[in-house]
């Protein structure tokens, strides 16, 4: 199965508005064009939050239209900049769990208890969903997706706004996860990271919007070469539980 992850679009109310010194709409559309060209065999398009910068319904409408026919299935989950209630109105995209045999994929909403500066948590109901998912797999291999990373990544400012109840998340994973859990994917960081999480891997993907420099005490927009470009990540999820993955940067004309 081929899965494409795109994340952190930060689309504005109107498509001609800049954010962090870049045109997020142009970058988003460039990424979609690259996916359409290179991955016509995409089975699942996964969008992992901060899709609209201030929860604009107009942005969600543009995303829904722009991603049609890009994959056999599409789904999204909210980030701290999103309005989860508006996203739920798009029922085709607002999935909570997908069975794509032999993979079982859980989507979590980490926007509970926002701190106003970027963090968010999993509500008790989401923690319960995670525990139930891990205890009762519906396919041999499992993947979890959420917006906020549950592990630190070495940037002080970003580690301060990671998943607010990461201790509870990790406790559930350590208690209930079996060898079935292979992969946890997130957004939020505007960077690529690959970290060990129990017996699984935690993987983040750069934004389609502006990127952040890694390993910094304070936010710094990435301006250097390819690292500044919009990006997406592809996954090949194999039938034996293994997977391959890579980040692709998209040049801007």
Automatic annotation (TrEMBL):
GO molecular-function terms, A-Z: hydrolase activity; metal ion binding
SUPFAM superfamilies hit by this protein: Metallo-dependent phosphatases
Pfam families recorded: Metallophos
Keywords assigned by UniProt, alphabetized: Hydrolase, Iron, Metal-binding
Tree of life domain: Bacteria
All residue ranges annotated as the Calcineurin-like phosphoesterase domain in the record: 1-191
Segments traversing the membrane: none
UniProt family annotation: Belongs to the cyclic nucleotide phosphodiesterase class-III family.
PANTHER family cross-referenced by the UniProt entry: CYCLIC NUCLEOTIDE PHOSPHODIESTERASE CBUA0032-RELATED, PHOSPHOHYDROLASE
The protein, known as: Calcineurin-like phosphoesterase domain-containing protein
Organism taxonomic ancestry: Bacteria, Pseudomonadati, Pseudomonadota, Gammaproteobacteria, Oceanospirillales
């Amino acid at each position: 199965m081929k899965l494409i992850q795109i994340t952190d679009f930060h689309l504005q109310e109107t498509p001609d508005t800049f954010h962090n010194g870049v045109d997020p709409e142009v970058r988003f559309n460039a990424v979609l064009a690259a996916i359409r060209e290179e991955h016509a065999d995409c089975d699942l398009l996964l969008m992992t939050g901060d899709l609209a910068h201030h929860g604009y319904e107009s942005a969600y409408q543009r995303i829904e239209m722009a991603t049609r026919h890009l994959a056999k299935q599409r789904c999204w989950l909210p980030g701290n900049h999103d309005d989860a209630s508006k996203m739920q109105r798009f029922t085709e995209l607002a999935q909570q769990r997908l069975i794509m045999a032999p993979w079982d994929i859980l989507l979590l909403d980490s926007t509970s208890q926002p701190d106003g500066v970027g963090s968010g948590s999993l509500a008790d109901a989401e923690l319960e969903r995670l525990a139930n998912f891990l205890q009762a797999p519906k396919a041999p291999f499992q993947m979890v997706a959420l917006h906020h990373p549950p592990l630190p990544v070495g940037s002080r400012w970003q580690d301060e706004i990671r998943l607010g109840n990461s201790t509870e998340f990790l406790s559930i994973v350590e208690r209930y996860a079996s060898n079935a859990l292979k992969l946890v994917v997130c957004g939020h960081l505007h960077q690529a990271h690959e970290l060990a999480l129990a017996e699984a891997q935690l993987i983040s993907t750069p934004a389609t919007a502006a990127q952040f420099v890694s390993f910094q005490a304070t936010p710094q927009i990435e301006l250097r070469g390819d690292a500044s470009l919009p990006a997406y990540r592809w996954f090949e999820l194999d039938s034996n539980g293994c997977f391959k993955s890579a980040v692709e940067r998209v040049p801007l004309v």
